UniProtKB/TrEMBL annotation, chain A:
Bias kind Basic and acidic residues: ranges: 1-11
Gene Ontology CC: one annotated term: tRNA-intron endonuclease complex
Chain ranges of the tRNA-splicing endonuclease subunit Sen54 N-terminal domain: 42-105
Protein's recorded name: Uncharacterized protein LOC105223268
UniProt keywords, alphabetically: tRNA processing
Superkingdom of the organism of origin: Eukaryota
Keyword tRNA processing carried by entry: yes
Annotated family: Belongs to the SEN54 family.
GO BP terms in the entry: tRNA-type intron splice site recognition and cleavage
Chain residue ranges for the region called Disordered: 1-22
From TrEMBL, chain B:
UniProt name for this protein: tRNA-intron lyase
GO MF annotations in UniProt: nucleic acid binding; tRNA-intron lyase activity
Name of the gene this protein is made from: LOC105233542
Keyword Phosphoprotein: no
Keyword tags: Endonuclease, Hydrolase, Nuclease
Native source species: Bactrocera dorsalis (Oriental fruit fly)
Length: 371, 239
């Protein structure tokens, strides 16, 4: 148990704005010295601790990771196996150290937490520090964070022809990769061929409409029905008028390209004046796929976030609840193109949380909804 | 996570009357003063304000006193924002904008004048049209730090649902993270959402006719704070 004494905090030093940049004044030096003294006083208090209560780990210089020698307590959400050994990521090791659950050794010498900071986060400024802060904060309040893996998650259900059509349509519209299980499906080749034919039908329509008619008549009736259904579906993606339709997440429409402001169009006022409103419906929503040639920062997702009650298992993870994008102190928020890009690069699209680490290390998360 | 807009009704707003959202009839005269367009005369003020809540009373924070108290004050006028007046004049044809010398201002002439006041006027006008065509009532968003506030039926019946922040692709990098967080904080305490409208325009944008604005394209982003602590605690424990 740790004995904590309440330190008397100088009331003067608490007033005013938060100071995050050193000023180099005499008063500041005095104040800092006082704070250091307080800290030393507190640290020099005798503490009692149970020796066996911690896990034991050592720094593996070849692997450049923390190698766990002895586990203690629940270790289910930590670490990864490599070559039959259990290793901890730098943030996991630091978190366990801070929680007093780990004893870290460096060439069989016990490391202090301060030394561990230097060893694990590095001496130069890197994004590692922010990642660690976010990891520690969210783990403390009860989430499970795992390093981001961009892998698709499959339902065990065999993909149907409809799924194949969806995957192909999303591939064209949102530039989304086609899931492997869909590619392997026996329906895939057939649906792809059919959709290609439909596309040709649509593009050639204006030129040889009459010829097309006779051709359509001669083609199999069975096949014809399919044309209609897949063709329709493609249209509904563009307009996205059926959000209620239950679909499997894997094939869900990513950016539905629907405005968040269209909800008034069912109101009596709007309907009454529909013709007038249509007259000045001049400015339209941009097409997100066109914007890709613009300069886009290469932001990457740091962590996958899971909830405890979803039955998280390290070995066979389910799709995460969110994915985290970490922004440092002065990094601007992602633009529309950037967030869309990141979202669509996911093999299994999940909402993205933008987590910003502030000047005084406060952590704030934001959800983005984008058209 | 699906998005649902916050639409809060005001207490005491009588829902019975179904007001037309846009004025019509013969054009009224407004005078361009350099920063706004002023409409005088009780009849004209009533017509413009009652049908779609355009403008604000020059002697009040919101609705002109003529509407709220019914007193006719000759010195009170209705101040229209530049976007509002451009919309009423050139897209709806209900307003005739005169300059101080009582000469009628044409579309291009007015736009040039407005661009001197607000260098992002074209983007703002584009966003205004975009919002208006979806049936929202738009008021100035200056008191919440944005460009516009949008209401479902008008400030008399609803609280504003969104703070609109208009920006172009290039100046998002200049919007500091603090500003965006501040905007979000204000929005959250007043039960609104921040909606960023990113306007992308072609390199050469002409604005000779009203249909030239079609070259502007808009994308929407809504930023909501995610309360990680309350989210994890609100999850039901399933075993």
């Amino acid at each position: 148990m740790e004995k904590m004494s309440t330190a008397k905090v100088d009331k003067q030093s608490q007033s005013g704005l938060k100071r995050t940049v050193p000023e180099g004044t005499v008063e500041e030096a005095l104040e800092l010295n006082k704070l250091y003294d307080d800290l030393r006083k507190q640290l020099s208090l005798p503490r009692t601790d149970r020796l066996g209560g911690r896990a034991l780990a050592t720094w593996d210089p070849d692997e450049k990771a923390v190698h766990v020698l002895r586990k203690d307590g629940k270790f289910g959400n930590f670490g990864y196996s490599h070559g039959g050994r259990l290793y901890l990521e730098y943030y996991e090791a630091l978190y366990l150290l801070e929680m007093n659950r780990l004893q870290l050794e460096y060439h069989s010498m016990i490391m202090s937490i301060e030394q561990a900071y230097l060893l694990l986060l590095g001496e130069t400024a890197t994004p590692k520090c922010n990642e660690y802060l976010v990891y520690a904060h969210l783990t403390r309040i009860g989430y499970i964070l795992v390093r981001h893996q961009n892998i698709p998650y499959y339902d065990k259900i065999e993909p149907t022809e409809e799924d194949c059509a969806w995957a192909l349509a999303l591939n064209v519209i949102n530039n989304r990769a086609i899931p492997e299980n869909v590619k392997k499906s026996p329906h895939f080749v057939k649906v792809k061929k059919e959709m290609k034919q439909i596309k040709e039908c649509i593009t050639k329509q204006q030129v040889q409409e009459q010829q097309q008619l006779s051709e359509a008549d001669s083609s199999t009736i069975n096949f014809n029905g399919k044309i209609i259904s897949t063709g329709k579906r493609k249209v509904t993606i563009d307009e996205s008028e059926n959000p209620t339709e239950a679909k499997r997440r894997c094939l869900e429409v990513a950016s539905s390209q629907k405005s968040f402001l269209d909800c008034l169009k069912d109101e009596p006022e709007y309907k009454q004046f529909q013709a007038t409103f249509a007259k000045f419906d001049i400015v339209q929503m941009g097409d997100t796929t066109i914007n890709t040639e613009d300069e886009v920062r290469s932001l990457h997702i740091a962590f996958d976030l899971y909830l405890h009650n979803n039955g998280f298992k390290k070995r066979s993870p389910k799709p995460p609840t969110f994915r985290l994008l970490i922004l440092g102190v002065h990094e601007p928020f992602p633009t529309h193109a950037e967030i869309t890009n990141i979202y669509n690069l996911q093999k299994y699209p999940v909402p993205i949380l933008v987590v910003s680490v502030g000047e005084s290390k406060q952590i704030q998360a934001f959800v983005y909804y984008f058209s | 996570m699906l998005f649902t807009p916050i639409i809060k009704q005001k207490k005491g707003g009588n829902k019975s009357s179904l007001l037309p959202p846009l004025p019509d009839g013969s054009p009224v005269i407004g005078v361009f003063t350099g920063i706004s367009v002023e409409v005088c005369g009780a009849e004209d003020i009533r017509k413009i304000y009652e049908n779609g809540f355009f403008g604000k009373g020059s002697k009040s924070r919101g609705a002109p006193k003529l509407i709220t108290t019914g007193t006719i004050d000759d010195t009170e006028s209705l101040s229209l924002e530049l976007e509002e007046s451009a919309f009423l004049a050139y897209f709806l044809g209900i307003l005739c904008i005169h300059d101080i010398q009582c000469n009628e201002m044409q579309y291009r002439e007015f736009l040039e004048a407005a661009k001197n006041v607000n260098s992002h006027f074209l983007e703002c006008l584009g966003s205004y049209l975009y919002l208006k065509s979806k049936g929202w009532i738009i008021k100035s968003g200056i008191k919440f730090g944005g460009n516009f506030l949008i209401y479902k039926r008008g400030p008399r019946y609803n609280h504003a649902s969104f703070i609109i922040f208009v920006h172009t692709k290039s100046d998002i990098k200049d919007i500091s993270i603090k500003d965006l967080k501040g905007l979000q904080r204000i929005a959250e305490t007043s039960d609104k959402d921040v909606l960023l409208l990113e306007v992308s325009k072609p390199n050469v944008l002409t604005y000779n006719t009203i249909s030239d604005l079609a070259a502007l394209k808009i994308s929407e982003t809504i930023i909501r704070r995610f309360n990680s602590t309350s989210f994890v605690q609100s999850q039901k424990i399933t075993k």
